[in-house]
Amino acid sequence: MQLQCDVSAARSDMDKLGRVRLPAVLTQQDLAALHQEIARINNWNLVTRMQGRHLDLDANAMQMLPQAQLHEFQQRLAEEPGFTYLFENYPVYDKWHAGQLAATPQLARLFSSLNSDAFLNDMRELLQAPDIGFADAQLTCYRSGHFLELHDDAIEGKARVAAFVLSLTDNWQESWGGMLEFYDQDGQVTERFSPELNCLSLFKVPIPHAVSRVQPGIPNSRISVTGWLRSGRDPGP
After folding, report:
1. Per-block mean pLDDT, blocks of 10 residues, the chain (237 long)
2. C-alpha–C-alpha distance, residues 174 and 196, integer Å
3. The pLDDT value given to residue 9
4. What is the residue-wise DSSP string for 48-68?
5. Is 8 exposed, middle or buried (0-12, 13-18, 19+ CB in 10 A)?
6. How far apart are the C-alpha atoms of 144 and 28, rounded to whole Å?
7. Which of 61, 82, 168, 189 is most buried when burial is the number of CB atoms within 10 A of its CB?
8. Are 156 and 42 in contact (CB under 8 A)?
9. What is the pLDDT of residue 237?
10. Alpha-carbon Rg of the chain, whole angstroms?
11. Could you tell me if 85 and 57 are in contact, meaning their C-beta atoms sit under 8 angstroms apart?
């Protein structure tokens, strides 16, 4: 699996805005294989933040909770102060380092491609960041009610140079929410990226951004491979 990136055409936007979109980065054959494999994943985590700490919950178990308990959970989340989020993930980076990606060989191939010399060299050139050493990644799924609040990805010790979102969703409608939103220093939205199949979005860290809440009752899922390009050597999970 190889990511096809025309970085020369994107340099101007990256230099000016700190973000770009690269279309058609996977072949149709690789894209179809990924879709088939992702459809078989049944052990998603539901990730959120409560009482100031990150939580990894069993997504299937959460869906089976009685309505009263689900309502209580949602109420507690709505009352949580500060930055929070709610979506599902499949932690590709952690599973890779734990030797647990055998069940998802297409994701393993994609992770290897994200860490290939060819892709990382393209990213070093595009971002003018020769110290980029590796990429981490997770598979994410935003369903009805899911969101990611405003933040900038700058976490001490993570050495994040840029974030990326490889969209694997087709026919997404803007009215459904799930927009990748970019903000200025006054907290105003300056641009929105709608999920676009087989498009790689890249933006520098720290740029304030969020994912708008997916509207209630939306039957589709916003699925992407997301992660960060990081400097230095891969420290492991």
Report:
1. 84 91 94 95 95 92 91 90 95 94 94 95 95 97 96 92 96 95 93 96 96 94 97 84
2. 11
3. 83
4. EEETTEEEEEEHHHHHTS-HH
5. exposed
6. 28
7. 168
8. no
9. 67
10. 17
11. no
Angle (CA) 122 123 128, round 5°: 105
User: Measured between alpha carbons, how far apart are the two ends of the chain, in Å?
Assistant: 24
Question: In sequence order, what DSSP letters do the residues of 104-145 get, joined into one string?
Answer: -HHHHHHHHHHTSHHHHHHHHHHHT-TTEEEEEEEEEEE-TT
H or E, element range at 69: helix 67-78
> CA angle, 163 as apex, 216 and 195 as ends, to 5°?
35
Task: Name which of 1, 19, 11, 9 is nearest 192 in CA terms.
Answer: 19
* Separation in Å, CA 71 to CA 60, 63, 78, 182, 225: 16, 12, 10, 30, 29
Peptide bond into 91 cis (omega under 30): no
pTM: 0.93
CB neighbour list of residue 231: distance below 8 Å, 6 or more residues apart: 129, 131, 132, 133, 159, 161
